[in-house]
Amino acid sequence: MTDSQRKTPSYTVALTIAAIAFASLFCSVLSYQRPPPRPNVFVPRRLDLESDAPEQVHISLVGVDKMRITWITKDSAPALVEYGTSPGVYANAVNGTTSSYKYTLYKSGDIHEVTIGPLNPDTTYYYRCSSNSAKTFSFKTPPAKLPIKFAVVGDLGQTEWTKTTLDHVAKSAYDVLILPGDLAYADFVQPLWDSFGRLVEPLASQRPWMVTQGNHEVEHIPVVHPEPFTAYNARWHMPFEQSSSTSNLYYSFDTAGVHVIMLGSYTDFDTDSAQYKWLEADLKKIDRSKTPWIVVLIHAPWYNSNTAHQGEKQSVGMKASMESLLYQARVDVVFAGHVHAYERFTRVYDGKANNCAPVYINIGDGGNREGLAKKYIDPKPTISVLREASFGHGQFEVSDATHALWTWHRNNDDVAVVGDSFSFTSLSSDPACRI
């Protein structure tokens, strides 16, 4: 495939048509009508880039003081990152690994990964990849202690709405972005993964992006490509090894005073599964004196009063298996995606309001190509506090061991309007909820 083919509008249209066709064949049939979304975006490879130039650069946390730098080159290039704390001065150099993958007739470029550190907290580093001076980057490490600010975006996709969401996120001065699944909406069309990598690079190369998978990452085709999550696992390597997980589909990490758990809705989750046993062990290791806050991300929501995605096993079955674990550990908040709308629930356990249970927030409204889910169950359940079918993103600002502020910013006429806010008190600071 040539660069000229990639940049032509007809090729972009063909990709979109193919994606929709494959999605209709292999994705779940939905029972509601979505309104028309904004146009899709396809970001071609820049024609002025050399074949060994880095692109699709993104970074992710590895432990409390290291960062993984991931990038792709069209042709072979060294898996080398040079970095330092002054622009253009690279006092450190680290080598990493290179891989690639095949998906039917598609072959990826070279995917490079380098883990650098130890790094100082709350510090800006400047870096370049593959010794290439044509593109240089910088990132800022999260703080070592509270306060810390998370950007929360679900079901991002790559549409004009996505670009608006990313623009708003860029202005939020966040430390870490967390994403509860459905990244590129490639749906079997692998060049869309490349487009997504280019689309998010300006943000994802500057702040760590921590993600988990959704249904659009599965990309399993019986007989033709039976292995699920091929592109996701190859492109978005998360620090699962550091949390004693055996799968890139679920893991945890600490940053500042927050323990974040990323669960996999589309891998085994019953009580005898590896994921369940890992979660049980991970929760037992948490020291609330060091990480007083616990945040969990899933893709398929356990609580949902939208008519979309009702009764799916990834929601019902996973909730039945794991909800009691989160409740007993006094998890503070659970973020989910999948439903293309916003909804915040009160603290709830087993379907009832409970002051020692997590707050559940559905935020699958990042900008996907399928549109919004506008139909809700009537009457509204008493445990549902606010629900609205608008695109947007969330900000979770943890100020200290006791207090945090959640705000949801809707994309209203391309302006990030605050549509909801909620002040948290950590369950670890509540004497009535201490275990």
TrEMBL record:
Gene Ontology MF, one: metal ion binding
Catalyzed reaction equations: a phosphate monoester + H2O = an alcohol + phosphate
InterPro entries: Calcineurin-like_PHP, Metallo-depent_PP-like, MPP_PAP, PAPs-like, PAPs_C, PAPs_N, Purple_acid_Pase-like_N
Enzyme Commission number(s): 3.1.3.2
Domain Purple acid phosphatase N-terminal: 54-141
SUPFAM superfamilies: Metallo-dependent phosphatases, Purple acid phosphatase, N-terminal domain
TM stretches of this protein: 12-32
Cofactor(s), by name: Fe cation; Zn(2+)
Residue ranges annotated for the Calcineurin-like phosphoesterase domain, each copy included: 148-342
Top-level class of the enzyme under EC nomenclature: hydrolase
Origin superkingdom: Eukaryota
UniProt xrefs under Pfam families: Metallophos (PF00149), Metallophos_C (PF14008), Pur_ac_phosph_N (PF16656)
Domain (Purple acid phosphatase C-terminal) ranges: 357-420
Keywords: Glycoprotein, Hydrolase, Membrane, Signal, Transmembrane, Transmembrane helix, Zinc
Xref: Gene3D superfamilies: 3.60.21.10, Purple acid phosphatase-like, N-terminal (2.60.40.380)
Similarity comment: family membership: Belongs to the metallophosphoesterase superfamily. Purple acid phosphatase family.
Protein name from the UniProt record: Purple acid phosphatase
Organism in which the protein naturally occurs: Cucurbita maxima
